[in-house]
C-alpha cells in the first residue's frame, strides 16, 4: 500500500496547495500516482501526526471502496481523494457525508452547469446514474474520536465504456455526459475550496443552512421510499434528524430514524 513515494506525492500536492484559497482544507496535500485506498493512506498519515485538513489524492486506487466494503472502480481520469476532519462542534461529525455530497453537487452546477441530485445517503447522480460516491469513516482511539476521514470518488475524464459491464447502466462520468474532457486540476481546486467553505460554516453552527441545501438537492424528502438495511423499511421520508439520520414515517404511523441503508425504489415516488 505504501510503495509510492511520499516525497514525490508531497511535492506534487504542493503545487495544488499553493493555489488553494482555504482556511483548513489542504493544510498538507499528498498526490500519488497509485494507492490502494486514499482513505487508508490518510489514516496512515493521521497516525504519523498529520492533522485536520490533510488531503490525499491519487490518480488510481487499486482497492477503492464504498459503503459496506463494496469495491469502488477507480481508474485513471477520476478524482479519488480523502480529507481528514477533526470537528470541534460535536454535531458536525453527523453531517460530513452530506456536506461532501452537497459540495460536489454545487461545484458541478457552478463550474460545469451540470444538474445533479443527491441519492440518500451518499451518492451524487446525473439523470439517475451515479457520478460520485462518498465514504466517511470515523476513526476512534478507545471511545475517543480521533478523526473522520471523508473520501470522495468522482468519475471525470474517462468514458462509461471503461466501467465493468455490470456498472454501465447505473453509473456515468462527466466525460460521457458532456462529450469533452474537464479541466481536472481546476475542478479539484474548486471542490476543495467549496468543501472548506461549507465545513467552516457548519463548524460555526450552520447546520440549518446545510440541511436546507441538502433538501434542495435531494429528491427523497416528502416522498414514499423503500429502504433496505437489516430490514426493509417503507414509508414517507420526512427530514434529517439532529444526528443526521433520515426520519421515516412508516405505513403504520411510527416515525423511525435510519442512519444507513439503500433506497431500493429509485429516488422515491409521490
What does this structure look like?
Helix 3 crosses helix 5 (184-203) and helix 3 (96-112) crosses helix 6. The protein has two domains: 6-217, Bira Bifunctional Protein, Domain 2 (BirA Bifunctional Protein, domain 2, 2-Layer Sandwich); 224-263, Roll (SH3 type barrels). It starts with 5 loop residues before the first helix and ends in a 7-residue tail after the last strand. A seven-stranded mixed β-sheet has the order 1-2-3-7-6-5-4, sandwiched between helices. The chain has a five-stranded antiparallel β-sheet with strand order 11-10-9-8-12, with no helix packed on it. With 270 residues, the chain is of the alpha+beta class. Helices cover 28% and strands 29% of the residues.
